TrEMBL record:
<feature type="region of interest" description="Disordered">
    <location>
        <begin position="451"/>
        <end position="472"/>
    </location>
</feature>
<dbReference type="InterPro" id="IPR016024">
    <property type="entry name" value="ARM-type_fold"/>
</dbReference>
<protein>
    <submittedName>
        <fullName>HEAT repeat domain-containing protein</fullName>
    </submittedName>
</protein>
Amino acid sequence: MFDPVIAPSGTLLGLLQRGRGDGTLHALTAPRAEALAALNHCVLHDPRHDWQVENRSLYYARLFLDLNGELDEIEAHLFDPEDALDSDESRTGLALAVLGHLASYGRRGALALLRRYAATGANWAWALDELALRDDDAGLRALAAPVLARFATDAEGEAELTAAVRDAFEPRPWRLWADDPRASIATRVRAAHEAGCFDRWQRQMRPTGPRPGWSVQAVFEWAQQGAERGAALHVPAARCLAAVAGPEDRPQILRAAREGTDAARCTALRYLADGNDPAALDLIESAVSDGSAAVLEAAVDAFERMRDVVAVDRARGWARRPDALGAAAGRVLACRGAARDHDLVLAALREAVRGEGPDAPTLWTLVDGAGRLGIACAAPVLRHIYRETASSHLRGRAARALAATDPSFAAGFAVECLWDCEETTRELAARHAETGDTRVVERLRRLAADPAEEAEVQTAVRSRIGPDSPTA
């Protein structure tokens, strides 16, 4: 997927792209045409860096309802000739998910677009999954013929159909079609389902990889074979070592960690770190100094998994190093350090923001650590991350850290978090937002009554407004 271009955080488009609650609040007070233009831009040009885990669809669907937005631009995007040329899920997935939520809110036009796209669009499987959750049986049965027509009746086409049935995220349509009164439909779907079950059974009967009785050297060789194919197998290989290695094999494993092939070094380092071997930390430090990029990455990852007191003490000594091991030490202290480590974790947090910006992957752990350790003077940095990051998950972590470190959170960011795109952030806000703000009480009641809202959020809401409070 392309790397999305994110507008500045102070603009309406930038707020909506980030999924911030302030995006909705600003859109509702902006000129309607301007707000709809920004909203459509987000839906048609997915702004998420990790579209498979970050939420935006319910957030955008709710704003479509609040603005009474038309679906013309979404329709034009879905049925553009480019759809036949670019079948990547990322091009249309967000738009289809937004339509799914709109359909659940009763927008019949959204349901009609999903049905039409499932019949003719390139990303038909996604549309079918949305319909599986929201359409009635009659609507789904009407799609059986156009969907099956996508698959030729020759061997290759039947194999593709088998894979589609086997890998379907939502099986409801295929189950309906297996009982279709039209023999031409039911026979093909049942045969595909049976073939898929047989394929799965065959894969289980032909396992690949380590076998009982393998030697330590055999495990290293298996990891090397994976590396030569471009597959990093050192993590499963380390688990295999834990099963086959005995005390007598330790010298060979130590030797591999010092001077083996890259795959062997990665495997041995992971194994030694997982077992809290006394030599692991020195070997990790050596690997960072003289290993390849792959070995360095594996060594740092192995170190971060270590949870004993010795590893935490070593992290205190490494935390000021200006390299990957120093950054990892900061993360270890963020996860497992004590109050005495406040300054080191804060320094790591500030350095990460200065050096890599508000979207640095290392910030996830450091932000959590600032909250866990209650580092009050980290609040200004946390607020900066909250405002600027393009990751809605990182913003949610920053919000949790602010709830633990910033006395102004309840009357500040917690209020806008009630409109955030991530349900975990809305849940946090429901527990902390200051109810003296009239917007908060109104929003809590709306969330409590919204059937699309997550159960955890509604539980948090009801803990604040009480079971007998009005919901309208």
